[in-house]
Hints:
It is a single chain. By secondary structure, the chain is of the alpha/beta class. Helices cover 24% and strands 41% of the residues. A seven-stranded mixed beta barrel has the order 1-3-2-4-5-6-7. The longest helix is centred in the first third of the chain and has 14 residues, at 9-22. The chain is globular, with a radius of gyration of 14 Å.
Amino acid sequence: MAQVLSLHAAERRQLAAWACDAYPHEACGLMLGVSEADGVRVLEVRRARNLNVERARDRYDIDPADYLAAEREATARGCELVGVWHTHPDHPARPSPTDLALAWPGWSYVIAAVTAAGMTELRAWRLNGGHQFDEESIEEADPS
């Protein structure tokens, strides 16, 4: 059964805005939410600083301080970190070999394809038992 990533329209718009702000560099961040039997319900997307200055156009390194702040916030809200989002400037929203090498099991990986014209694609991925990515379908969460 395919896993589902539930994302509010407002969070999608925020992610698109951050993607455009960072272009032509990669933007990145974390997702707070709740793991459910059929996937993940994202409650909030948070932006993180990309510390990779040498290869900022095609790599990201999440600032550990941003990671710790997101982890503390998730704990305080009674939820958890459920994954990472990042952009692929001028490339498709498919995981790269680097994305695969650095991925953690059990997390969702949302990738936004972005060009000078804006975000063109948003897709979600999760590692399977064979250390390959399976696509998660992204559904718009109820506005409540």
